[in-house]
Amino acid sequence: MTAPTHRFLSLGAGVQSSTLLLLAVHGRIPAFDAAIFADTGWEPVAVYRHLDRLGDIAGRAGIEVVRVSAGDIRADALDPRHRFASMPLFTLGPNGERGMARRQCTSEYKIRPIKAEVRRRLGYPHPARVPTGVAAEMAIGISLDEIGRARDADVAYMRNTFPLLDLGWRRHDCLAYLTAHGLADTPKSSCVGCPFHDDRFWADLKAHSPAEWATAVDFDHRIRAGSARATAAGQPLRGQFYLHRQRIPLDQVTLHPRQQSPDDTPSCGPWTCPHPSDPSPGREVT
User: What dihedral angle (degrees, nearest 10) is formed by the CA atoms of 185, 190, 192, 195?
Assistant: First the structure.
């Protein structure tokens, strides 16, 4: 295979991927043709503000920050006309069985639109076949303390690279680098209504972002019977869906936020979500 002619960054806008973008801006690692952010439509306001800031910083260095999207995950999940991409919601069966729904949202709302953009930039948008030997490098923000999540791409037209592993950097090294360059407040990237949030996130959202808290509470209430499409078709879930692991309405949960180090809260990027709920987490859609 010939050497890749395009270099992209999978930009989740969290700590590690923001560090990679900044390293490229400063010439510490080779520049990217583009940093690609997959927008689910329901990121916290702080993430969108940070993304705008990254766009300004990268733009001055000639690196384009591109936003791609497969839709608004919250609106789509509540739309009875839209196919439901399963979120890892907590389930409570009719006899008290406790479970968790499959996670398809990462593949459909993050990985798939990034791959579509890579194909487009290579000149072979779906359904065109990408010729053998044509490939792009995709830099992914996985640090040394998360090395177990580093995997090869499952498509021939992308080669995953991990510059932070090459540098031997851990997450605290990334935080120190961001802080040294005025980005100490880089937020955690994830959907507002992600079921994997801990009580610290929910308590902070409730106290400091009441509008976003209200959208999460409303979403939690409206997904109680499962897929809006299935419910409209007369096929409601045999049980109930919840955002919180206690499996009670979000606004009725007694939150117990624990103190933790920033190193305890990795972001949920396209290929780096730390929660292995997918039946086959290493598989990617084309």
Answer: -130
